[in-house]
Amino acid sequence: MTATGLYAPGWQRLALASVMVVSAWSGAACAEALDQRIDRLKSEVSQLSESLFTLEQQVLHPADTRLSVFLSLDNVEALELDSIELSIDGKPAASYLYSARELRSLQAGSLQQLYVGNVALGPHTLSVTLTGQGANDRYLRRETELDFRKRSGEAHLELVIAAEAPDFEPEVLLNHW
Amino acid sequence: MVRVVCSIILMLSVTLVTAAPSTDAERRLALARFSEAAGEPSQALAWLQGLASPTANLVRAKALLASGRPEHARQLLEALTRGDRHRGEAWLLLAREQLAEQGREAARPALQNAARLSHGATRQEALYHLADDYLQLGQLDQAGRVLASMDDGYWAAMGYHNIATGYSDVDSTSARSLVAIRVALAMLDGDGNRRRAEALRAELLLKAGFLAYQSNEFQKATGFLDDVPLNSFATPRALYLHGLATFAQRHYRGAMQSWHRARKFPLAFSGSVDAWLGMGRSYDELGYLAQAGEAYLAANAALESEQVTLSTLADEVDNKGAYQAMVLAARNSDVEWFLADSRTLTQPRLAYLLHLAKQPDAQQAIARLATLADLAQTLQRHEHDLGLFIETLDERQRTSVSNPTAEQLAAQATRLARALANLQGDGEQASRTELASITVQLSDIRDSLDRWQDRTTLARTQQSRLRDRARTLKTTIPGLLTAVTELQEAAGQELDRIATDFIEGERRRIRLAQDRAEQHIAYLYEYLALNTLERDLQREVAE
Questions:
Q1: Is there a contact between A110 and B368 if contact means CB atoms under 8 Å apart?
Q2: How crowded is residue A41: how many other Cβ atoms within 10 Å of its Cβ?
Q3: What confidence tens digit (pLDDT) does each residue in B381-419 have?
């Protein structure tokens, strides 16, 4: 054991303890300062993302041809939605894999913006493929085709997934705003 | 602004339903809620612009907390606590902030308010924290009373898990702890999150097995440990304990079977190292001394090899930094994603990463770097997107459709409308339906062309404004990227320090186990040498 160890004189032990306390404190303080700096940066990036999101909505999609497709669940507790795929006129437009938290949020009534894009005026077909676990934990995959007409101005379509008793067969319904 | 399109013609038998959110504000709130749940706080805040209802403010506060703006979030939450709605949730969010920043004492009033004013999962979480607070103060009876008022589910199970630890610290027997664990196991049935419940169940069974073993209730211990699933983080330790409990009942072969399975896990897992040594001990007890020697030699070789692994890992941390060497390298495995579960438990690098990440300060340091990596990625994506927007807007300005083209299109539409009018009235019902559909489409086109002049003027003004906005936003990005790089360096150094200490600790642990293996080998050789000497002596005496 060296003089800086257990048998060191009192003042040296006190000094060693002080150094240890100070270094532990400075480590914690340093980590805290780092966290605060990261939080500030995160806040600035978040504000930038928010502005960009708004800008994106305005730049990419001219109002007259814009189509937004939303998704919601209608009292679907018997369906654990895994994923959804959306095609417009046979071309893949969007796909999404759901986390447990997102699914809970949808089940609690939230709304997802599944697709924003441009389509020409006239008739179109939306193809929706959903996968998930239905009642009795059975795996299911359902494909649905829905037709709509795009007229001038913004169009907002809401896909509502419903699965009603007694068979809890999932059904995709189209709601237009 | 969402404009309701009132006359979309649906061609097939599409059922119309009335969805829950029916106004623009309700829809934007519902969209914000999903964005917040999806980990997109910026989008959530964008949807919430102009909304000021209590629910909107609660979602806004959550998004602000997730995007590093706690002061603003705190103001909103404090205002909510003085209102009529979401008081419980607001108190709980405030309590979480206070727990993280100021400690338990400061958070206590907020937790009490959250428990009093909320219901469901919010209330359960608040009660869990209150019970934990009493446990930290050593007031086990008070903690028990709080837990007794909870509904079954994850939070109650966690609470009983913690109180079992509290009882085991103060009691001389394991009776109360085991009862608490049994209650925790029963409470878990109410947890809807299956994976989370399974992970906690494995931990509870391991703890119960350990407590029963400590009380010399070996059969009870194996009973608990038998139920630990083989793919959990607790498995190696459970197998080792199972071996110990079986060994204590003098079932040496049974013990060896458990330890043989525990040996298949990386030595980073607690229990695996001891299982290697336990194999030698079992052979020794069974009287197979040569096999015991071989088992200890095999353990020594495995431990030696682990020292090399740790030394390589330490060098990599020195050269590349801990985040690259441990976190990213563990992620970039060639193993197929669907083998991820077994990979987690069989790869040394991942096993050490999991072990390291069990330390709260390491977890925070890794989270910091992951956040910064996300921010860097987001900024690079934004820079690219903004560049594209500016290009697109410039291009649109250059190639905007001239009025003569629009006029030609209008003339064409008029000609088509005339042709359509001539066809009206003729033909069958099916054709008439089709003609009606074409009429609608043509009418839309003409309507659109009628507004062309106004729309192009407006579009030019808007495009110019948007381009200026995009340029301004783009100029802020290089500064933010520099800040991210600086912080990545500082956060990386912090993680390197923690990882180096951790690896040093692991090397000491393996060295200690190696010493034990070598001592056993020396003892065995000494015993065998003495036996040989004794036999030789007896033979000489007999001759």
A1: no
A2: 20
A3: 899 888 888 888 887 777 665 555 667 777 777 777 777
For an interface test with A, the pick among B4, B6, B7, B8 (most A C-beta atoms closer than 10 Å) comes out as: B8
* Contacts for B270 with CB less than 8 Å, ≥ 6 apart: B236, B237, B240
Alpha helices in B321-347 (DSSP H): 322, 329-331, 340-346
Cα–Cα distances in angstroms (integers) from residue B102 to residues A29, B99, B108, B134, in the given order = 14, 6, 11, 17
Q: How many other β-carbons are positioned within 10 Å of the β-carbon of residue B479?
A: 10
- Asked if the structure places residue B168 within a domain, the reply is yes
Q: Determine the 3-state secondary structure of A31 from DSSP.
A: helix
Strands A66-74 and A112-118 turn out to be: antiparallel
Q: Please state whether beta strands A66-74 and A155-164 pair in parallel, antiparallel, or not at all (unpaired).
A: parallel
Asked whether B230 and B262 are in contact (CB, 8 A), the reply is no
Structural domain includes residue B178 = yes
Q: Is B448 on the interface with A (CB under 8 A)?
A: yes
Cross-chain Cβ contact B42/A110 below 8 Å:
no
Counting the structural domains of chain B, the total is: 1
Dump pLDDT digits (tens) for B432-480.
677 777 777 777 777 777 777 777 777 778 888 888 888 999 999 999 9
The ipTM assigned to this model is: 0.80
- Position A110 pLDDT exceeds 70: yes
Does residue B141 contact residue B167 with C-beta atoms inside 8 Å? no
CB B522 within 8 A of CB B280: no
Give buried/exposed letters for B251-278 (b at 16+ CB in 10 A, else e). bbebbbbbbbbbbebbbbbebbbbbbbb
Return the pLDDT at B346. 62
Contact of A138 with chain B, judged by CB distance below 8 Å, is answered with: no
Kindly give, in sequence order, each residue whose CB lies less than 8 Å from that of residue A53, ignoring residues fewer than 6 positions away.
B42, B43, B46
| Residue-level pLDDT at A27 | 62
Whether residue A91 lies within 8 A of chain B, CB to CB, comes out as no
DSSP assigned state of B15: P
Give me the torsion for CA of A74, A76, A80, A81, rounded to 10°: -20
Contact state of B487 with A38 under an 8 Å Cβ cutoff? yes
Whether residue B16 and residue A38 make contact (CB cut-off 8 A), yes or no, is no
pLDDT tens track for A5-46: 334 455 555 555 555 555 555 566 677 778 888 888 888 888
Question: What is the spatial distance between Cα A112 and Cα A106, in angstroms, rounded to a whole number?
Answer: 8
User: In this predicted model, what pLDDT tens digit does every residue of B187-236 receive, in sequence order?
Assistant: 998 888 888 899 999 999 999 999 999 999 999 999 999 999 988 889 99
Structural domain that includes position B185: 152-249
Tell me whether residue B520 is in a domain: no
Q: Does residue B188 lie within any of the structural domains? A: yes
Q: What separation in angstroms does the CA of B62 have from each of B30, B55, B65, B426, B475? A: 14, 11, 5, 62, 29
Helix/strand/coil (H/E/C) assignment for every residue in B122-139: HHHHHHHHHHHHHHHCCC
* Per-residue model confidence (pLDDT) at position B490: 93
Please indicate whether, in this complex, the C-beta atoms of B448 and A177 are within 8 angstroms of each other: no
Task: Give the pLDDT confidence score for residue B147 in this predicted structure.
Answer: 96
Place of tokens 């399974």: B198
What is the DSSP track for B393-441?
Answer: HHHHHHTPPPHHHHHHHHHHHHHHHHHHHHHTT-S-HHHHHHHHHHHHH
Domain CATH code at residue B212: 1.25.40
